[in-house]
Amino acid sequence: MTRLSHFLAFAALAAVTSAQAAELPAEIKQAGTLKLTANSTYAPMEYRDPATNELVGLDIDLANELAKRLGVKIVWSETPFAELIPSLQTKRADFIISGIQDRSSRRETADFVDYLTTGPQFFVMAESEAKAAADLCGKKVGTTRSTAFPLEIEKWSKQNCEAAGKPAIQYVPGENSIDVRNQLKQGRIDAAVQGSETLPYAQSQEPGKYRVIGAQLSTGYQGIMFRKDDAVLRELVTEKLTAMIADGSYKAVLDKWGLGANAVTQPMLNAAPQ
């Protein structure tokens, strides 16, 4: 489906549910709070500010503005990336906005309201001899184990290394993006992969340390993740996000974190490639 057809399908679904979407679900409305959880190791999307220890980031700002427009406050908790989806399924979180990518395999039990473009990206230490992505064939490349990036590395390796008669990339797992970057700095891996939206921030925090290499392995979307039976909440959040895009507050948040180029023109339902 094209982006336009995804948007039209979303609009049709919104029309069907608009009568129901007038109010927050009773439990949230009564409590006056949203329960949200984040993986605070993925700057600039969500992380602990070293100076204040406060939870900050692009997703945090977007969530806070959405909550303000919904008339509720947020009760934040933190969890490893691998526990984000279980947190949603067990209702410890009302929805997930925490650097999570819309993927077809995740849509069996959830829906995504896509709000940011993303894609896995190779990077190396500045002094690395690798000049092109093809130079990583046969090398050790690390990424966070609980993401979709290991599969992306394997797919890229088959298409660009093995198909050309070169040795496959050796995938090395990491616990999170901080762990992976530490492995890279310690020389335990030759290159790393993380979301392209996080690399400008990493480079700004350690100037001259890292160098992006090659193009994104693929292009997709980050999404706000909802349980499939939470259509009312999903539509309300979509309505507020649409208003934020229209009035410029969405762009202001992205620009604050240097990610204006990753903006979408409207929220999209389950729009990432299959």
Characterize the structure shown:
With 274 residues, this protein is an alpha/beta fold. It folds into 2 domains: 3-118 and 221-269, Periplasmic binding protein-like II (D-Maltodextrin-Binding Protein, domain 2, 3-Layer(aba) Sandwich), CATH 3.40.190.10; 120-212, D-Maltodextrin-Binding Protein, domain 2. Helix content is 34%, strand content 23%. It contains 9 helices and 13 strands. The protein has helices at residues 3-17, 26-31, 58-70, 84-89, 149-160, 177-185, 199-205, 231-247, 249-256, and strands spanning 33-38, 41-42, 46-48, 55-56, 73-78, 110-118, 120-125, 140-144, 170-174, 191-195, 210-212, 220-227, 268-269. The strands form 4 sheets. Strands 9-8-10-7-11 form a 5-stranded mixed beta sheet, with helices on both faces. A 3-stranded antiparallel beta sheet has the order 2-3-4, covered by helices on one side. A 3-stranded antiparallel beta sheet has the order 12-6-13. Residues 14-21 have low confidence and may be disordered.
Feature tags:
single chain; 274 residues; alpha/beta; D-Maltodextrin-Binding Protein, domain 2; 2 domains; five-stranded mixed β-sheet; three-stranded antiparallel β-sheet; 9 helices; 34% helix; 23% strand; globular
